[in-house]
Amino acid sequence: MRKYIWAFIVKFVGVGVLTFSLFGVFFHATIDRLFLMTFVVAGVTFIGDVFILPRLNQAVAAVGDFIGYAVLYYILGNLVVEATVPLLLPALTAAYFAGLAEMIYHIYVMDRLHEEPRTAPLPTRFQTEVAEEISPETEARKKEDIRDDEAEAKE
After folding, report:
1. Is residue 134 part of a domain?
2. Any long-range contacts for 58-67 (C-beta under 8 Å, 24+ apart)?
3. Residue 126 within a domain
4. pTM (2 decimals)?
């Protein structure tokens, strides 16, 4: 549970930086609206990273994230930000930068949340070699017995 919280915090900070820098600086949105927008976008995309990402490869996930970010930023931008210009270009710009950041974030998520059990690179349990000569004394006796049997057979 702790690693999911940390992964969400990393995602929230990344999305927050993008949202505040794009919509806060250029469209002068209020902080509470930007936090709401950040929380919704980070929450929806984090659910996708947790449940959908392990089933897809990272290239398909990056394209899906680009589309998801573009749609979310466009819809939430029109609902939250009071802009007089259409928000399609800022939504696509935010989706582009978020898609680039998501490629790195996917590596982090796959390593931290969806890690496969790792095996040791070398064997950790060693097996002793078993040969015919378990104890040298008994082997020497067996060889002597075989020689004696061969000598008796010749006579």
Report:
1. no
2. 58/103, 58/106, 58/107, 58/110, 61/102, 61/106, 62/99, 62/102, 62/103, 62/106, 63/99, 65/98, 65/99, 65/102, 66/95, 66/96, 66/98, 66/99, 66/102, 67/95
3. no
4. 0.70
Residue 152 identity = E
End-to-end CA distance of the chain: give it in Å, rounded: 83
Q: Is 50 exposed, middle or buried (0-12, 13-18, 19+ CB in 10 A)?
A: middle
Residue 25 lies in a domain: yes
List average pLDDT for each run of 10 residues in the chain, which is 155 residues long. 91 94 87 94 92 84 92 91 83 94 89 70 64 66 81 78
Place of tokens 């020689």: 147
DSSP letter (8 states) at residue 134: S
Q: Say how far apart CA 2 and CA 74 lie, in whole Å.
A: 32
Residue 19 domain boundaries: 2-112
